[in-house]
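Sample 1 of the test manifest.
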Amino acid sequence: MLKPTSSITEEHAALPATDATGIAVVGLGYWGPNLLRVLGDNADAEVRWICDLDRDRLAKYRRRHPSARVTTRLDRVLSDPDVEAVIIATPVHTHYNLAAQVLVAGKHVFVEKPLAPSSELADDLAELASERDRILMCGHTFVYSPPVRAVKRMIEAGTLGDIYFISSSRVNLGLHQRDVSVIWDLGPHDFSILLYWLSELPTTVRAVGRDSIVKGIADVAFVTMTFASGIVANVELSWLAPSKLRRTVLVGSERMVIYDDGASEPVRLFDRGVVYHDPETFGEYHLSYRSGDILSPKIESYEPLGLELSDFISAIRTDQRMEFHTALARSVVRIVEAADRSLRAGGREVALTDHADISDQLFARRGLALA
Amino acid sequence: MLKPTSSITEEHAALPATDATGIAVVGLGYWGPNLLRVLGDNADAEVRWICDLDRDRLAKYRRRHPSARVTTRLDRVLSDPDVEAVIIATPVHTHYNLAAQVLVAGKHVFVEKPLAPSSELADDLAELASERDRILMCGHTFVYSPPVRAVKRMIEAGTLGDIYFISSSRVNLGLHQRDVSVIWDLGPHDFSILLYWLSELPTTVRAVGRDSIVKGIADVAFVTMTFASGIVANVELSWLAPSKLRRTVLVGSERMVIYDDGASEPVRLFDRGVVYHDPETFGEYHLSYRSGDILSPKIESYEPLGLELSDFISAIRTDQRMEFHTALARSVVRIVEAADRSLRAGGREVALTDHADISDQLFARRGLALA
Amino acid sequence: MLKPTSSITEEHAALPATDATGIAVVGLGYWGPNLLRVLGDNADAEVRWICDLDRDRLAKYRRRHPSARVTTRLDRVLSDPDVEAVIIATPVHTHYNLAAQVLVAGKHVFVEKPLAPSSELADDLAELASERDRILMCGHTFVYSPPVRAVKRMIEAGTLGDIYFISSSRVNLGLHQRDVSVIWDLGPHDFSILLYWLSELPTTVRAVGRDSIVKGIADVAFVTMTFASGIVANVELSWLAPSKLRRTVLVGSERMVIYDDGASEPVRLFDRGVVYHDPETFGEYHLSYRSGDILSPKIESYEPLGLELSDFISAIRTDQRMEFHTALARSVVRIVEAADRSLRAGGREVALTDHADISDQLFARRGLALA
Amino acid sequence: MLKPTSSITEEHAALPATDATGIAVVGLGYWGPNLLRVLGDNADAEVRWICDLDRDRLAKYRRRHPSARVTTRLDRVLSDPDVEAVIIATPVHTHYNLAAQVLVAGKHVFVEKPLAPSSELADDLAELASERDRILMCGHTFVYSPPVRAVKRMIEAGTLGDIYFISSSRVNLGLHQRDVSVIWDLGPHDFSILLYWLSELPTTVRAVGRDSIVKGIADVAFVTMTFASGIVANVELSWLAPSKLRRTVLVGSERMVIYDDGASEPVRLFDRGVVYHDPETFGEYHLSYRSGDILSPKIESYEPLGLELSDFISAIRTDQRMEFHTALARSVVRIVEAADRSLRAGGREVALTDHADISDQLFARRGLALA
């Protein structure tokens, strides 16, 4: 039978297993429907509650998820003993209160990014999760994207050698957020990727930008970070750009990589570099330039959100705590907060206040086998 | 007769006119031979002297320019009353001394970029040129490049509206300079272009970078500038990159431009932007995004160096002083110096010390008809 | 209120108007579900029946379209007086029989492309439709795609001048069809686009290809067509290619166009050409080459299938017969048939048998205002 | 010492060795000066004569090559016993007469492409060269270009598997030739490359085109060839195109290659293909699609013309006859002639008349180690 590779989306959602993990989804705005759809495909999960303040939205999604109950009240969700975990996809300023309630109720929680509007509140949530021995995970989905993982494997395998610097652009025309700067909106993507790749918090952050359109809301920012290892990273973030660009260049001592999220070849590995030769007879050093093959490795194709939620549910079922993810989320908030502070101070250097536990947890992921 | 557009280079050099301007070229390193070649095509110029410390080079170029005399001694050049102008293409640290001697000898001078290794010395040269009423011009050739001029015309015509910010990358693999950072090497290109376009000195400069290969010589730098008009500019400079990139994005209130120096379409004009609507009934503002045509205008094709030297020689013959070019060169040195200082201070903000005369001369070019 | 351009798909399907046109959809394979989805968004249409031989599929789509009835028997559909039109998305070899039954039952019919497996059967259907005074339309959706329409407008406006030739590539890796050559599979796309643009049937067709993988099923073909107007067209079709390409170049006497279906700028207009100057003094002609701006016009963004079905339903409601579309579909089958015959004869020229009515109907669309 | 990779062209030409091979260059039009320049860099060659009908040109190049003598008369060149070989870069219609004189005079000859204006004359030259035991080589320089050689190595190494088909485009805006079609002008490039790669003459050729601008001179042609091995090749040639393109796609059973002559990555190897699985249980075959890494191998950087002339001179000095090159040149003329004939006959198939000696010599190069 002729059976070519199918590009047709599988239509039949997985039926929940009898011992499926009970999940509630809170928030039906932009991202919530995606979470619902992906959970519907996960046989280990059962969406038991959908919660939102808007009754029309509830009615609409009830039809699509007939087995779930709907409510405008979080307490009804939290009092259901069959709910093991709650996924929060509400506006940022509500993250702390909702997640704290979920943890206090003894349930695991998955919060959309960024985890909280300040590092203090993010730390509080982490402490609460630790006290209650519950998972606190944050939706940094790029950490699950195939090209980002491919680059991580290259870094861990030493393919790039020592990383000298990273230069990144994440720009597009729109959409302006009405209450936060472009750093809070787009920064978490790049910062989570950098933390995942480097397993290291920056020590200093600087940001210079401009509120071109709406006074008080920066819509372009150039963020520069330095790391204790010597790495320098420059991240350009903007809602104003002639064309969409999501491109990161990593320059290492052995090889260089371009990760271009929208390209048909999202990862390109350049066998290029400079070799420093120590002084010999005449007491002068010598440099040679190396320029070899360029490789576009085949990148797997799957939906990152599916793997991320599957990881969350699997952690619940196997009693893991996802400390790396908690540390990652706290670190992202730290960088965003520092960058935003620098931006408001006209580009002044802001040192990052480290917590030993964060670094330990970030660093623990270096060199480990990856999911 | 079939006469299609010829791509064959014209072989016959122009013969100097009988009243041609006498020129001397000092320095036969990387750039000097290009200057000689281009001067050979200019009917208004006559190369009377070629000067270099290396006798082999002199012998080689004497053969190619049989009408020119060669020497290792600048004083012989300066004592020739038929030499009206001297073109200096020697290492940067010699620029000041050589150019000063030329001016003291009462001759016009054209110095390769950057003009001098410090703003103080650059200012001294400018003062000397002013006292002796001679031209002091510096080889910022990009100011003569067709795509840079095309963008200038767009800016002056108001096509872009108010410029919000500029983001630029000038990166390549190599060549490391042995005595100066990448800021001194590549920075003058971008800084001269920005000054030419904006007719405005930045007020603050910050640079963060790294000396990845040779200790003490930064090979990557992220330079951020702010301008009194509100414009923010970010310039990435690097000798370490997977592939060559010379790309500048200008984001304006009306349109956006990508200038990509190596591309087959070096200037692309995007009819895109955001419109801010003031609050109306409900007291909330409203944004609309506009996305129209993209235009790659036809860009003229000529060698910028030819036009630049022709401009210099024409200024000599018509008794002009090229104040804009002197001011531009002094400003470039100011920015390079400030950026290098910031880099060494770990990214600290450095304010630019303005001289009223520089700003006046820069600003004078705004809105003027262009050559 | 902050209201940026939304990229979120509108979720609420239009509710059918009370006088909505009753539609049946036959065939739930690859394309049928798309037709159902799009019909669900059309307020003027009501899907009354879904018909397929597979009961599982019927069950699945009944859930999604609760107001429609499902059946495995076409006669039940045809006997429903409230069904005004039937949309057929079944395998090609069934098109003729099913469409004929629909027309005989006095209903309008929309058939997926290609209309029929031979020009004879396609002509029969057209005759039947004409006799019964019903619409016979075929799903050549590219005719409704925004970039194809943009190019049509340029042609009609004379922007390109006289078209000299057209060169097209439609290649990808897979999917091999099991019973027909790549000409039957991919050819209808290009042929329908060419017919729409040129309003003219080719007079000769040649095709050379190869059955590289499966004996007897050509998976690559180079099709060359000549037109009475002098236009030459070359179309490369392949299921074997290193990367997907859907690119058509039109070379006209005044301007040239590249239409690249997958590109971010799908239409690019080049102000380039050659001017022939008649012989003058020396009796020899002279050519000059012209190379001006390149324009990427803004292309509208909508789903072509939506507009196509809306056009079909609107034609039913306003009692139009869509003769151009019938003629287009018959012409496409003619070209496919001729190309396939040439391919099997090793590239021999095949002349197209014209029917006056087809040409008249095709030609009628030239210069007309477009939807 | 800092010694980075130099991009500065080496200026000093090689001095001829005392036993250098004496060469004459005939024709100083477009290509002759390049030949002179390259010969000047070859220490094994000494240009003894420069011959052209235009005395101004002779005067100009005498200055540049002071050791060469100049003349308007070929007989003076041929009577010089120190001239071992003559390089002919004159218009095509003169190739036969000039080359024949050279061979009759007992000297080796290198003729610019195409070798002769008909296959009969090309065969005559080959016979003459064979009788006189002299080298007859033709300037199919692409055979010496680094990316073309890289693809040849891949083919010989079996990297592509069996080649199914080849699709090529060589298009640009201009320059129209005044006396020959685009097939005679651009075709030799593609045809020589295909012959070099495949070591096989096509058996049939078809060409359809149009004389869009100048009546009688086709400026666009689509040439289709079939080979006894089953390979199909389509070559698009045009002087009318919106942008320059020199791109060849090779589709093999194991891998695919894109060779793009103007691209920064001129050779890209795609690990993609289709696997046919024989029928098993249900008696139906099965296809699987494979899509792996993409590799841009580092391509050497040298001037093909330099290697080509070096090969010619080396063959003279080591007494080789370059039979492959003679056969290649004769084969190119055969294909051009056949394609032009097909074009004039409206695309009729033209069979290639093979000579056993040509095929043997072409085939001999298959699998051999390459220079």
